[in-house]
Amino acid sequence: VVLVHPQIPQNTGNVARTCAATAAPLHLVGPLGFQLDDRKLKRAGLDYWDAVAVNTHSSWDAFFAFFQQLPNPKRLVAFTVYGDKYYAGPEFSYQPGDWLVFGAETSGLPPKAHSDVLASGGCLVKIPIRDMHVRSINLSVAVGVGLFEAIRQLD
C-alpha cells in the first residue's frame, strides 16, 4: 500500500492497522501532513505499529525511483477518480506484485503520479461512487476496499 501525501494522521493510522492485519507493507510518500510521531497517528494504529513494515519516501519522484529499481513482477495500481476501470470490475484483475497507490485526502494523486503509473505499465482504477454530491470516500476506507479485493482475487 502506497499513500502519497497523506494529510490526516488518523487515516494513516487506520491504514497501518489494515496493513498489519493483512501483512501488507506500507509506503508513505512525502510531504506528509503530519509528523510520524503524531499521537493521533499512533492512537489510530493502536498497538499494531510494530507489525507493519513502514517505509518512507521524501517525494513521489523518490518513491518512483525506488519502485523502478525493484525486480519484477511489479505493477502500480493507482486508485483515482480518473481511473478508466473499476477496481473490482470484470475488466480488471489484480496480479502478484501489484502496489496499490492512493492519493491525499484533499487533492488525490498528483498529475505526475498518474503519468508515471501509466508510463511504467501500471493502471488507473476507480471505486464507484453513486451519489454525485460525494467527491470521494475516506482514504482508509478506500485502502480497505482495494486491498481486500486484491486479497480476495489473489488468494
Automatic annotation (TrEMBL):
- Annotated GO biological process: wobble position ribose methylation
Has the keyword Secreted been applied to this entry? no
For this UniProt record, the keywords arranged alphabetically read as follows: Cytoplasm, Methyltransferase, S-adenosyl-L-methionine, Transferase, tRNA processing
Origin species, per record, is Volvox carteri f. nagariensis
Any idea which GO molecular function terms this record carries? RNA binding; RNA methyltransferase activity
Q: Which Gene3D superfamilies match?
A: 3.40.1280.10
List the InterPro entries hit by this protein, alphabetically. Alpha/beta_knot_MTases, SpoU_MeTrfase, TrmL, tRNA_m1G_MTases_N
Record-annotated tRNA/rRNA methyltransferase SpoU type domain positions: 1-147
User: Which protein is depicted?
Assistant: tRNA/rRNA methyltransferase SpoU type domain-containing protein
Record bears the keyword Ribonucleoprotein = no
| Pfam families the UniProt entry points to | SpoU_methylase (PF00588)
